Amino acid sequence: MNHIIIILLVTSFNAYSQREYVNQEVKKTAQEQLGKKIGYGSCQNFVDFVLIKSGAVYKRKITVKHPFILRINFIKKLYAKVIENKITSFGEKIKAKDAKEGDIYTFDNVRLSFSRGKWNHVGIILENKGEGHYDTIEQNVNGSNVVYHKLDLSEIISGKVTFYRPYKTRL
Questions:
Q1: CB of 105 within 8 A of CB of 136?
Q2: Which uninterrupted H or E stretch holds 164?
Q3: pLDDT tens digits, residue range 18-43?
Q4: Torsion angle, CA of 92/115/159/35, rounded to 10 degrees?
Q5: In whole angstroms, what is the distance from residue 55 CA to residue 69 CA?
Q6: What is the C-alpha to C-alpha distance for residues 99 and 162, in angstroms, rounded to an integer?
Q7: Within 13 Å of residue 7, how many CA atoms lie on the same side as its CB?
Q8: Span 87-112, mean pLDDT?
Q9: Which residues touch 162 (CB under 8 Å, ≥6 apart)?
Q10: For a designed S-S bond to 121, which of 3, 107, 143, 150 qualifies (C-beta 3.0 to 4.6 A apart)?
């Protein structure tokens, strides 16, 4: 009987640990937004939109500050899905060196060598060029709509950069 219990536990663990990653969907959806202004134009609006549309799990406490967002049916459905299901993670945390296309990165109080102040930001990796260099797609880089950009980790003086691998939600 003990052997059967062990086998069931291993089987349950393996079923849970096998995630369906959505990197390709995230990359494709992000690139389809190039040049557009998503939501209010913040980096978070862009990544929220891309992750939801790609069916990815992610962590985001939604606070609707501007009620007219709820009048836009598509956005209303997407945000309602997040609120009702209490999505709790951006994805699986990964090491910077392992980041690949469709992965998400976040800045938490990051100070850059070429600018003043500390930054909180989120973007999507398009390509890992190696040695801390990445091609990215982001919104709100100096107030921009969705644009291609470059990320160089050697320019970071302080703060935290975290990378995530998005995976499909099981709602």
A1: yes
A2: strand 156-165
A3: 788 999 999 999 999 999 999 999 99
A4: -10
A5: 20
A6: 10
A7: 4
A8: 87
A9: 93, 105, 106, 108
A10: 107
> Within 10 Å of residue 61's Cβ, how many Cβ atoms?
8
Residues 163/68, Cβ–Cβ less than 8 Å: no
Question: Per-residue pLDDT tens for 57-92?
Answer: 765 555 444 444 444 555 555 544 444 433 336 788
The Cα–Cα gap between 125 and 128 comes to: 7
Query: Could you identify the residue written with the tokens 């296309």?
Result: 101
Rounded to whole angstroms, the Cα distance separating 103 from 71 reads 30
Rg (C-alpha) for the chain, rounded Å, is: 18
E strands along 113-155, which residues? 119-130, 133-138, 147-152
Tally the residues of the chain: 171
Check if the beta carbon of residue 122 is closer than 8 Å to that of residue 59: no
Rounded to whole angstroms, the Cα distance separating 85 from 115 reads: 39
